C-alpha cells in the first residue's frame, strides 16, 4: 500500500468541512439514477474535480455513486496535486561524455 493510500484510509471524511470530489469513471453504461446523481453534483466529464460542503445530503449522493468517484479532503487533494506537479516538473538534463577520462599518474 502506498503512503498516499494509507493516508487516505486514515482520514475520516466526516471531519472535513469541504469535500473534493473527482469523477474517475465514465458515465456510459451506468444506471439512470447514477447519471442523474452525477449531474446533480455537476460532474459531467471524467477527471474533473468539484468542491462541495460536507453535508449529509452530499454524503448520501456520494454513497450512491461511490464506485464512480474519488472523495478527498483538502489535505489529501493538495498532497495529490503536489505529487503530480513534482512528477511533471522538469528534470535536470543528463550529460554523457563519450570521451575517455584523462589518465592520472598513480606512482
Return residue spans where pLDDT drops below 50 for at least 5 consecutive residues.
Answer: none
The order of strands across the largest sheet is 2-1-3
As for the number of domains, it is 1
SSE arrangement, N to C: HEHEHEH
Supply Rg. Answer: 23 Å
Number of helices: 4
Number of strands: 3
Biggest β-sheet description: 3 strands, antiparallel
| Average pLDDT metric | 80
Estimated helix fraction: 25-40%
CATH classification, class level: Alpha Beta
Describe this structure in words.
38% of the residues lie in helices and 14% in strands. By secondary structure, the protein is α+β, with helices and mostly antiparallel strands. The chain has a 3-stranded antiparallel sheet with strand order 2-1-3. It is elongated.
Q: Would you summarize the structure shown here?
A:
The protein is of the alpha+beta class and 107 residues long. Helix content is 38%, strand content 14%.
Descriptive labels:
Ribosomal Protein L30, Chain: A; single chain; 3-stranded antiparallel beta sheet; 107 residues; elongated; 4 helices
Q: What is the topology?
A:
Blueprint: H1 3-10, E1 18-23, H2 32-40, E2 49-53, H3 56-64, E3 69-72, H4 74-88
Antiparallel strand pairs: 1-2, 1-3
Amino acid at each position: 500500500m502506498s503512503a498516499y493510500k494509507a493516508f487516505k484510509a486514515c482520514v475520516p471524511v466526516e471531519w472535513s468541512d469541504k469535500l473534493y470530489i473527482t469523477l474517475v469513471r465514465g458515465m456510459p453504461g451506468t444506471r439512470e439514477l447514477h447519471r442523474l446523481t452525477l449531474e446533480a453534483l455537476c460532474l459531467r466529464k471524467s477527471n474533473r474535480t468539484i468542491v462541495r460542503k460536507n453535508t449529509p445530503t452530499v454524503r448520501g449522493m456520494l454513497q450512491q455513486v461511490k464506485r464512480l468517484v474519488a472523495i478527498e479532503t483538502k489535505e489529501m487533494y493538495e498532497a495529490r496535486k503536489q505529487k503530480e506537479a513534482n512528477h511533471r516538473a522538469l528534470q535536470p538534463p543528463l550529460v554523457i561524455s563519450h570521451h575517455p577520462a584523462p589518465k592520472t599518474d598513480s606512482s
